[in-house]
Amino acid sequence: MNLGSIDPILLLASLMVAATPILLAAIGELVVERSGVLNLGVEGMMISGSVLGFVAAIATGNAWVGFFVAALGGAGMALIFGILTQFFLSNQVATGLALTLFGLGLASLLGQGYLGVKAPSFPDWHIPLLGDIPVIGPIVFQHDPMVYVGLIIVAGVWWFLNKSRAGLVLRAVGENHEAAHALGYHVVRTRLLAIMFGGACAGLGGAYLSIVRVPTYADGLTAGAGWIALAIVVFASWKPLRLLLGAYLFGGVTVLQLNLQAAMLSLLDILSAILFISAVLVILIGAIKLRTVTKKMMLWALGLLIAAVLIYFYAAMGWPFNETLWLSSSPYIATIFVLVIMASGGAPGSLGKTFHASR
Amino acid sequence: MLTLEKRPQPSQFWSYAAPLVAVVLTMIAGAALFASLGTPPIEALSKIFWEPLFGEFNFFYLPQLLVKGAPLVAIALGLSLGFKAGIWNIGAEGQYIIGALCGAAVGLAFYPMESRWLIFPLMLIAGALGGFAWAMIPGILRVKFNTNEILVSLMLVYVAEQLLASMALGLMKNPEGMGFPGSRNLSQYASSSSWIDQGYGMHWGVVIALIAVIFAYILFSKHILGFQIKLAGQAPRAAAFSGVNPARLVLFCLGTSGALAGLAGLTEVSGPAGLVSIDFNVGYGFTAIIVAFLGRLNPIGILFAGALMALTYIGGDVAQSSLGLPGAAIQVFQGMLLFFLLAVDVLTNYRVRIKQGAVA
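The joint structure predicted for all components is written out below.
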């Protein structure tokens, strides 16, 4: 065990960077889903954005141009999806899958000549004054501009959905498209715009991966980030601010996973510690917030405690355990856990349903 | 102004014609794509669709049609069960990998014992169970916690890929492989080989795919379960009132598709692929989604769609070696096929009408 090699400030700082691509893709998909459309093509749009942005950035030597082109490309891909689902009334699940398969193919076709090429530099901003604050400065205020662009988009989406008239229309369309149509709102137009916004955000997220995070192009670069973004929208119950929390949690898992691999920390020990803490938390939260400890909570806490002890025992006995395998699978397994815990309520009423104005 | 009017019944004509129209449109769009890549388009199309079937070397390519078509058909059949009922298993690639790993583990455990009639059937069972178990994870989570099976099954593909990498480089690595990654060669070990006749491309995966087609056909035309699956997809409320148990349906559809994908994976790894290596899986689990839709979720249709998709794989290889067409172009081509199919499909359920005046 070598805890000392993990620098908490560096860890938190890289968490923000790791979360940004998922955050960008997820906030776009959140708007799309709030308008009642389920676009499963996020992964395809993301990887297309990553290659288009990369190619444009290399060609011009300017990362900003890359991001712009990636957003355009993502929106263009999304438009295919929009036309198929809104005008040709195709099944949204099938069309989204088609978009992903198509995007993966397109990306590996376009990216052929660029494998292993290095992206143009995209320097970090050292925000004056704020960046000089000890501890908080390096964590929050010394990143590249796209990190802040992502945060601004999240804030903008929050304002749009909750405070603006157009956002209200979008939500109405998503909750009940028949009623919105009857009130005279343009269901199809609203959805097309939302779909294209979602595509542009996914494209940005993809380009962030290839231009800043990696920073080179490789086949299958997104490695499921688009799908994790979809899961985060569910985790967030379709609310922008919870989405921010979700994306940072996942960024945390990703960064921690990489750091643990490097630090040779025992995953089993950490897991048993987490389970132990959650057992305590269950009782504490119950006692403080609900002022009572129910039987169900006792059972949960007991279960968590037993699991913690068993895992600790397993680790203490030195039985075989493949650290690398479990660590590199952890973002995906964490996603599944999150989906299980958060699987309920909050979905827009018309999500995934085809709208056909018969009158 | 063009408007769409819902048909009272889906059009019989268009449900057959839509896939054919989609294939033709994809060929046209594909020709444009190939031309933009600097490949002569007509020549590329003939290399893809004509050369493997009727060309000079078709004796070499025709067996490949069975090899590539069998896993696609087997997986797509399983997927079609769920797709009909609105249960979206898109993690077949993961179930395929896990099936292959479980089956290969049995085969490797018995090495070098010689007993064809014990070991290979055991491998088949292990492969089916492996795929089944992997598909049960999203199934049980959906039934117990109402978790989205699309995302869970997909996440498990990435976990399966990690597991495959760790197995191929670790536990299952060939001890006599001189450090090369990958397991012992299962197809050369008589007791575990899935080949029946390599010269004709016949292996047990082909047999399984054909049996599955027959079973699926009977299921949908004669059995109550097939009716319930269709009912649950088209009218969930009616299905609930008529006593369909949705949980059982989810588990059945996911379990069957997982088992079929597992079998496809096992027969691939012990035959055409030969050994467990990091990249023995080539994405059949995802391409099978296209096959299932192109075959209209119908067993016989899937058989034809699987053959066509296998042809694009083989023809793509031919075009790659003779014309230098990039391999990824075929992937784009396959993706376009699904787009066009979904677009043309609107004509199955809707009629296009020309309407006077503006539409509100």
